[in-house]
Design goal:
The protein has 14 helices and 11 strands. By secondary structure, the protein is α/β, with parallel strands linked by helices. The protein has a 7-stranded mixed beta sheet with strand order 2-8-7-6-5-3-4, with helices on both faces. The protein has a two-stranded parallel sheet with strand order 1-10. It has a two-stranded antiparallel sheet with strand order 9-11.
Length: 354
């Protein structure tokens, strides 16, 4: 791992490989607003083909990708259905509501990241002017809050089937879709087949410095491009960023299996530490959520930092994320630091001897 700290806060902290840096330096460039940046065009075409869609659009981030996808498929006053633990609902600042006037209707999410088909069907509003028009179902794969669970084709079909029966469109937040594809040994195109639109992040497990790609029909991409412009994100010689994405598609997808293995080792090690609650069998990809005694999470995170390991603080639930740049030795060191940090918290809480 680079530097003195082992950074397990997120896979967004990855740095581009040397091959990516060279490709960025040498990238063939044009003006993307005119549609003549050849590197961006190649990235968009390759990603669309990989996901089984007609066209793609390079955007600045996964959040922006989700935003333009929703806005391109709804009108002000429309409603979207989504999970109550999904990224769009919890971590995207309400952008679809603020900028699109879209109503978010959250549905309960089970521990595997699924929404019950019957709950989807029941949430669709009647054709009544008192109600918003339900237009879109948004699903997430992998599901971050469920320890990065990968939803397989059967799980996706159950949810999207309920949406289609009600006449809804489907958007897939596939920020870590390639993690799901590798974990399930299933082509990404099969996991994305039921969705009208899909967003895939380049800047997480694929280790690019910036960017995501939105894919769907040509008509959808035309509308999403308009929304990207409205959001101020029409970019010029952006091939310097897209070049890293092309390298990532060749070099970074297969190696995600290493991150998944490291996460499983991490979860199994954490399960052996007194005071930690974690189910290693829940770990399919690169995200490990684990429980600690209530009120101790911030102190444990601080203790890890003192011992050279970075994680995001929390009250009783913490997260570690494996990624490019994290090796097996880093996992072992992180487990030693976690054991010491938990022990220090327990010792501080123990009553003083009389």
């Amino acid at each position: 791992m680079r530097g003195a700290m082992i950074d397990l806060r997120s896979d967004t902290v990855t740095h581009p490989s040397r091959e990516m840096r060279r490709a960025m330096y040498d990238a063939e460039l044009g003006d993307d607003v005119y549609g003549d940046d050849p590197t961006v065009n190649r990235l968009q075409e390759r990603m669309a083909a990989l996901l089984g869609k007609e066209a793609g659009l390079f955007v600045a981030s996964g959040t922006q990708g989700n935003l333009v996808s929703v806005l391109a498929q709804t009108r002000r006053g429309d409603e979207i259905l989504l999970g109550n633990q999904c990224h769009i609902f919890e971590h995207e600042a309400g952008g679809t509501s603020v900028l699109g006037g879209v109503v978010l209707f959250p549905l309960p999410t089970n521990r595997y990241g699924e929404l019950a088909p019957e709950a989807i069907a029941a949430a669709v509003k009647p054709d009544d002017y008192h109600c918003p028009r339900t237009r879109l179902l948004c699903i997430e794969n992998t599901h971050n809050a469920s320890s990065g669970r990968a939803l397989d084709c059967a799980q996706i079909a159950a949810m999207t089937g309920a949406a289609r029966a009600a006449g809804l469109g489907v958007h897939l937040d596939g920020a870590r879709l390639f993690n799901a594809a590798v974990a399930l040994n299933t082509p990404a195109a099969e996991l994305a087949a039921a969705a009208d639109s899909v967003t895939v992040c380049l800047s997480k497990g694929l280790a690019c410095p910036v960017g995501s790609v939105v894919c769907g029909s040509r008509a959808f991409i035309d509308e999403a491009t308009r929304w990207r412009k409205i959001l101020g994100a029409a970019m010029r010689q952006v091939g310097v960023l897209a070049a890293a994405g092309l390298v990532a598609m060749d070099t970074m997808i297969g190696r995600l299996a290493d991150d998944h293995h490291h996460a499983r080792v991490l979860a199994e090690g954490l399960a052996q530490i007194k005071g930690v609650s974690v189910d290693p069998d829940m770990i399919q990809t690169n995200i490990v959520y684990f429980g600690v005694p209530a009120g101790t999470g911030h102190r444990i995170a601080a203790g890890l930092r003192e011992r050279g390991v970075l994680i995001n603080p929390g009250d009783s639930e913490l997260r570690m994320v494996t990624h490019y740049g994290i090796e097996r030795g880093d996992i072992d060191a992180a487990l030693r630091a976690a054991e010491q940090a938990l022990a220090a918290v327990r010792e501080a809480a123990a009553p003083a001897a009389v």
